[in-house]
Structures are given as C-alpha cells and as structure tokens.
Specification:
By secondary structure, the protein is an alpha/beta fold. A hairpin with a 2-residue loop joins strand 10 and strand 11. Bound molecules: D-malate.
Length: about 240
C-alpha cells in the first residue's frame, strides 16, 4: 500500500538547512525569541508588509530611502535605527499600513536562506494554532527551520517546531522520518503545560533577561496571541490572513 502522508520535519539550525532543502514545499521559519514573534506582532498590529534583510548595510540603504527600519544585534537595538526586535516596538499606531524593514541576528537571516523554497511562512508560539490549521489544509511537505542562535541549537524554537510536528501528525495525514522531529515533539510534550517555566533554561531567555527584556520574553512565550500568517512574496512578508 502506498503511503500518501506528507512529511513534517525539523531542522535544528540554519547550518543544517542544506541537508533538508530539496525535500520540502513549505518552510516554516521559527525564531521565538524574538524575531518571528515580533514579526507576528507587527502584522497583528496592521503592518502592510515587512522586508527581512540579513545585513545592517542593506538595512541602512532602506533607511536612507525613507523606510521605517528595525535592526537588532546581540539582543540590542543597533544605533541609528528606529527600533530593534521587541514585539512592543511594533504595537504602535504609526506602523499601521506601512512597509517596515527588519534585520536581526538570526531570524531574518533564516528567512533569507529559506527563500529557495516554494513557500516560506513565519512561525512562532504566538501564531501556532492558526498556522497549524493552515498547514494541515495545504497538505504539503513541511520543514520547520529553527533559527537557533548563531547556528547553534536552541530550546524555544525546537519546542515551537515540536508543537507543529505534534499537531500535524495527530491528523494522521503527516509523518516524520527524522530523529530531530521526534526529539522536538517530545520536548514540546514535556514543555507544553508550562512553556514559560520550562524555558527558564533557555540561553537566549537568560541573555534577554540580563537586558531587562522580561516583558518581551513573556509575550514571545505566550501561545496564540496573534491570528496572522506572514508569508514571503518576493522580498517581503505579507499577512495571508488579512
Ligand atoms: C534574532 O533574530 O537573533 C533574535 O530575534 C534576537 C533577539 O532576541 O533580539
């Protein structure tokens, strides 16, 4: 009997992406702390489009052309830019209807390396339910690309990816082959009742706490606060649930 189920897998870091990229139709880019959570917050607050750029130089070029530009490195706002990577920077009325540019340490780079895929969407804990619902309807091979930290594994992105694997597999229409996906699913299952508490162990959470960014951490680690699915169209993300 042929197996018609689609695959859902997890790539732990962008450094491993080349091993997976040929096999998947949809890539979900995840950077829970904080890039993809901030992106979801921006769309939830009416941003028209968001252009993710990898380098500060490109971000500066957009700024010189009159765009609102956010730039973050090592968790901090890069000097000279309008804002950084806090979800709260995108919850302001001035941003409604605008196209915003964003460059972050890991998240926007992952979006740009995923570009070769047919479809790239943004995943975070904050849009998990709407995203899962949409992924189930697409019925295509899905890769969750965790942004990690400078090409290293991180807990928060893996747990979010594990939530996607678990929900898609529960439908019976998806399967996974890789141990990374099994590990992500088990991590999610042990964390899901208290994600905030579980992620006290996360290195980036500790990094952000040192920068007094507890409010951001709380927002990013709370599930289903936004009903958006940012999808990459050319060089920019747009919200397909608008
Ligand atoms: C990133 O893209 O590396 C993160 O979002 C970093 C941060 O929390 O600012």
């Amino acid at each position: 009997m042929t197996d018609n189920r689609k695959r859902v897998e997890v790539c732990f870091t962008p450094a491993l992406f080349d091993l997976y990229k040929e096999d998947f139709d949809i890539i979900v880019v995840i950077d829970v702390l904080r890039a993809t959570s901030a992106i979801c917050a921006a769309f939830d607050n009416g941003v028209e489009a968001l252009i993710p750029v990898s380098s500060i130089e490109t971000a500066k070029e957009y700024q010189a052309n009159g765009y609102l530009v956010g730039a973050e490195r090592e968790g901090k706002i890069v000097e000279g830019f309008d804002f950084g990577n806090s979800p709260y920077s995108y919850m302001i009325p001035e941003i409604k209807g605008k196209t915003v540019v964003l460059s972050t340490t890991n998240g926007t780079k992952s979006i740009n390396i995923a570009k070769s895929a047919e479809t790239v969407v943004i995943g975070a804990l904050s849009n998990m339910d709407v995203l899962n619902e949409w992924l189930i309807k697409q019925n295509k091979n899905v890769l969750c690309l965790c942004s990690g930290w400078k090409d290293r594994f991180n807990l928060e992105d893996t747990i979010c990816a594990g939530g996607i694997v678990e929900t898609l597999m529960e439908t019976g229409n998806f399967m996974s082959d890789d141990d990374s996906s099994v590990a992500a699913k088990y991590l999610y299952l042990s964390a899901k009742e208290n994600i905030f508490g579980y992620l006290k162990a996360s290195a980036h959470r500790r990094r952000l706490k040192k920068l007094n960014l507890n409010k951001d951490i709380k927002f990013c680690l709370t599930a289903n606060t936004t009903a958006v699915i940012p999808l990459l169209k050319g060089d920019r993300l747009v919200n397909i649930l608008k």
